[in-house]
C-alpha cells in the first residue's frame, strides 16, 4: 500500500520531538551549567535555546534529504556531488557556531564566555559531530525507507507480471479445449452422425464450466473431478465406449480448494495423445488422492504405435500446467515419463501452499 501522508507527517513530528527531548534533557542536566539551581527561568531559557538551534538543524536536515541526497543519487560524478555536500555541511557548521556564540549565548542564555582559540576549535569540532550525527540518523532512515519502497514496488511489479501470466495461461486452455472438441464433433459427425447431437449437448455443459467456473480464483476438487467425469463421458460417446477408462478418486475432503483447470488438461491430453483417432485397445487410468490437502494426481495411457512421446509432445497442456504450478503453489512437483508402451504423468501439490496474490498486495 502507498505510504500514508498523514502517518508520514506524524512520524516526522515524533522523530523531532524525541530528538528535542534528548537534547533538551542533555543541556539541562548533563552540561557544565547543570550545577546551577534548576529554576523556571533557566528551564525556559534552555528550552528556547534548544528550540532555536533545532530549527536550524531541521532546515539543514531537510535540505540534505530532499535536495542534496536526490541530487547526489542522480549525479554521474559522485565525487563532485560529495564535495558540494561536504562544503555545505562545513559552511553550515561555521554559521551555526556564529549564531550560538553571537545570538544564542548573549541574547537567549544571557552568558558571555571568554574562549581562546583551542576552545573555539574544539567547539567547532563538537558542533560538526553534532550535525553529522543528526544527518547520519536522518539519511539512514531516508535511505532505508527508499529501499523498502523500492522493494515494495518490485514486489508489486512481480505480482502484476505473474497475474498477467496466469490470465494468459488460463486463456490458452479455453481455445485449446474448444479446438479439440470441434475436432471431436467433426470426426463423430462423419463417422456416427446420430450421436453428434448428444456430444454437442454434453459439450455445452463443459463450455458453461469453462466460461463461468474457470474464472473463479479457486473451486473445489469435487467440481474439478465432475468436469473431468463429464469430459470422459463425452469422449466415450465419441469412441463408442471402446476406450478402457479407470478413474479412482480417494479424497478425505471433496471441498478442498484448488485452482480451476489445473488437473483437467492431464485427462484431455491423455485422450488426445493416447487415444487419438483410434480407440481399439486404448486405455486411460486416472488416479486422484487427496489426504490432508496433499494432492496427488496420476494419469496413465497407452502409447499409440509409431508415436514417440517426449516431455514436449503434449501441446500447450503440460507446459501450461507447469507454469501455473510455479506461479500458484510453493510446494509442488510435476513429472512425465515413458515406461515401455505407457506414458505416465504424476502431479503432487500441497494445497496449503497456494499463493494468494490479493493477500500479497496488502
Your description of this structure?
The protein is an alpha+beta fold and 362 residues long. The chain is built from nine helices and seven strands. The protein has helices spanning 5-29, 40-74, 78-109, 117-191, 193-211, 221-238, 264-274, 317-328, 357-360, and strands spanning 219-220, 244-251, 257-258, 283-291, 294-302, 332-339, 342-350. The strands form two sheets. Strands 2-4-5-7-6 form a five-stranded mixed β-sheet, covered by helices on one side. Strand 4 (283-291) and strand 5 form a beta hairpin. Mean pLDDT is 82; it is low at 308-313.
| CATH classification class of the largest domain | Alpha Beta
State the major sheet. Answer: 5 strands, mixed
Task: Give average pLDDT, whole number.
Answer: 82
Shape descriptor: rod-shaped
Question: How many strand segments?
Answer: 7
Helix content: 55-70%
Strand order of the largest sheet: 2-4-5-7-6
Give me the strand/helix succession: HHHHHEHEEHEEHEEH
End-to-end Cα distance: 6 Å
State the low-pLDDT regions, or none.
Answer: 308-313
Strand content: 5-15%
CATH superfamily of the largest domain: Histidine kinase-like ATPase, C-terminal domain
Kindly report the CATH topology of the largest domain: Heat Shock Protein 90
CATH architectural arrangement of the largest domain = 2-Layer Sandwich
Derived from helix and strand composition plus strand pairing, the structural class reads alpha+beta
Instruction: Please tell me the total number of domains.
Output: 2
Radius of gyration over all CA atoms, rounded: 37 Å
Count of individual helical segments: 9
Amino acid at each position: 500500500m502507498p505510504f500514508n501522508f498523514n502517518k508520514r507527517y506524524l512520524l516526522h513530528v515524533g522523530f523531532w520531538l524525541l530528538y528535542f527531548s534528548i537534547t533538551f534533557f542533555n543541556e539541562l542536566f548533563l552540561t557544565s551549567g547543570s550545577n546551577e539551581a534548576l529554576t523556571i527561568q533557566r528551564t525556559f531559557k534552555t528550552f528556547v535555546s534548544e528550540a532555536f538551534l533545532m530549527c536550524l538543524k531541521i532546515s539543514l536536515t531537510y535540505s540534505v534529504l530532499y535536495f542534496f541526497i536526490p541530487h547526489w543519487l542522480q549525479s554521474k560524478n559522485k565525487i563532485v556531488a560529495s564535495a558540494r555536500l561536504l562544503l555545505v555541511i562545513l559552511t553550515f557548521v561555521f554559521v551555526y557556531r556564529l549564531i550560538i556564540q553571537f545570538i544564542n549565548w548573549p541574547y537567549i542564555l544571557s552568558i558571555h564566555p571568554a574562549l581562546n582559540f583551542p576552545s573555539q576549535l574544539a567547539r567547532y569540532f563538537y558542533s560538526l559531530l553534532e550535525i553529522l550525527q543528526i544527518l547520519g540518523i536522518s539519511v539512514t532512515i531516508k535511505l532505508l525507507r527508499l529501499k523498502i519502497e523500492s522493494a515494495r514496488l518490485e514486489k508489486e511489479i512481480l505480482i502484476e507480471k505473474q497475474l498477467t501470466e496466469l490470465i494468459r495461461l488460463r486463456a490458452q486452455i479455453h481455445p485449446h479445449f474448444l479446438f479439440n472438441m470441434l475436432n471431436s464433433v467433426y470426426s463423430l459427425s462423419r463417422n456416427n452422425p446420430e450421436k453428434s447431437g448428444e456430444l454437442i449437448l454434453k459439450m455445452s455443459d463443459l463450455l458453461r464450466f469453462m466460461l463461468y467456473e474457470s474464472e473463479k480464483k479457486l473451486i473445489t476438487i469435487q467440481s474439478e473431478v465432475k468436469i473431468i467425469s463429464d469430459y470422459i463421458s463425452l469422449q466415450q460417446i465419441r469412441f463408442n465406449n471402446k476406450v478402457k477408462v479407470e478413474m479412482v478418486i480417494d479424497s478425505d475432503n471433496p471441498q478442498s480448494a484448488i485452482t480451476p483447470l489445473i488437473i483437467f488438461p492431464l485427462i484431455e491430453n491423455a485422450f488426445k495423445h493416447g487415444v487419438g483417432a483410434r480407440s481399439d485397445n486404448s486405455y486411460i487410468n486416472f488416479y486422484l488422492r487427496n489426504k490432508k490437502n496433499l494432492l496427488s494426481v496420476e494419469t496413465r495411457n497407452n502409447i499409440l504405435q509409431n508415436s514417440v512421446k517426449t516431455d514436449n509432445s503434449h501441446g500447450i497442456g503440460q507446459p501450461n500446467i507447469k507454469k501455473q504450478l510455479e506461479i500458484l503453489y510453493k510446494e509442488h512437483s510435476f513429472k512425465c515419463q515413458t515406461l515401455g508402451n505407457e506414458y505416465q504423468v504424476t502431479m503432487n501439490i500441497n494445497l496449503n501452499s497456494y499463493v494468494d496474490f490479493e493477500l500479497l498486495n496488502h
